[in-house]
């Protein structure tokens, strides 16, 4: 699909250049990590390509490492790796096999990742949605061989529109009536749907935990429709005073709310950065892509999160039990002063990074200066 867009991109860029004669100059292409093959079009215009990497620097370092090992003399094959852990330069600790991204275990997908990694190495530079202070080890490791620009956090903090009413607006109104930092929020991203058996285990675990909760529940192939049909009988009535189950959720508005004290998350990178921004502790429940790596980063390397099941994969068919969920939710909502202090420090770091003179602000300025030197 990306390949078929090359003629359209070529035409669009040519039109912009023709309209801008004597005005704006073309400095380069910024390409999404899945659109790296469009570097060919940038080459036709004699300008460099930059990659925008939307996942963490540590995940980028992992992909680049396995690609280099595969292309090197050892001909490393990630799909056949049977060790318990792998030493990766961008990680302070060896990465356990259980934290490998789901696509690394599939031969067709890992070849695609290798190609992306080669294209990334051939770019002029890499913009990463992270903050130097948040991932200092990974950023320093990558900077030793590549030009990287940590420009994060790139977030939409306006939240969802709840003014029109509906369940999302009612959820915010319900939060307004709850004590501070007492509600656990469960949300697993736009693709985070569970089979019915797992939904029932989550419900039982939440009820047993005794915690207040707000649960964004999506059904496979059905989205937000009739989510209550898969809940245990009587669950809604028994938890009416302490919980709410909704479909789509205005995540940033909820994380920003004073009543929310914990976040059970799939560890998508945007969700992770949002949670850190608002200083909401996380319990990790990764689903797909690089999310297991993100969970390992949060729990083991940064020590700012707890876990439900860090090695979970949505494709495995495994069921996380109600006991595990109850235990994980209780642990998440327990006070941990050292964890909270680390989370507060990182939250302050990523906010300062965007201020004038901050690390990300300076990195963005450096990128524009570098790009302008290559303009045609």
Over the alpha carbons, how many angstroms does the gyration radius reach?
A: 22 Å
Runs in which pLDDT lies below 50 for 5 or more consecutive residues are: none
CATH topology of the largest domain: Rossmann fold
Tell me the fraction of residues in β-strands, as a range. Answer: 5-15%
Main β sheet profile: 6 strands, parallel
CATH superfamily of the largest domain: Glycogen Phosphorylase B
Number of domains: 2
Number of strands: 12
| Estimated structural class | alpha/beta
**String of helices and strands:** HEHEHEEHEHEHEHEHEHEHEHEHHH
Put simply, the count of helices is 14
End-to-end Cα distance, whole Å, is: 28 Å
The share of residues in helices is: 40-55%
Query: What would CATH call the architecture of the largest domain?
Result: 3-Layer(aba) Sandwich
With strands numbered from the N-terminus, the spatial order across the biggest sheet is 9-8-7-10-11-12
CATH C-level class of the largest domain is Alpha Beta
Return the average pLDDT rounded to an integer: 92
* Shape assignment: globular
